[in-house]
Design brief:
The chain is mainly α and 86 residues long. The chain has one domain (2-85). It is built from 4 helices and no strands. The longest helix has 29 residues, at 57-85.
Length: 86
């Protein structure tokens, strides 16, 4: 749960326009919290790779892509949830 919460905080910083919705939806949406957990894992791994000068550039790009894809999934999920509530 702590990892999902950290991921939520990171996403709230990264997506300030969706901050309120992320906060509300995270309390009731397990799929969103799963994405938050995955985002925390991926960003933590990316941070560690970026700190290590011996890291493989291809692996860094792969984790950058993973982080971006998770972020896109979160945006899509929030848009879909918002359109259902209208």
């Amino acid at each position: 749960m702590a990892s999902a919460q950290r991921g939520l905080w990171k996403l709230m910083l990264k997506l300030p326009a969706m901050r309120g919705q992320l906060q509300m939806e995270s309390a009731k949406n397990k799929a969103l919290m799963g994405l938050c957990d995955a985002f925390d894992d991926a960003t933590t791994a990316l941070d560690e790779l970026n700190r290590d000068p011996r890291s493989n550039a291809g692996l860094i790009r792969e984790y950058e892509t993973i982080c971006s894809e998770i972020e896109s999934e979160v945006i899509d999920l929030c848009i879909n949830l918002k359109s259902r509530s209208i």
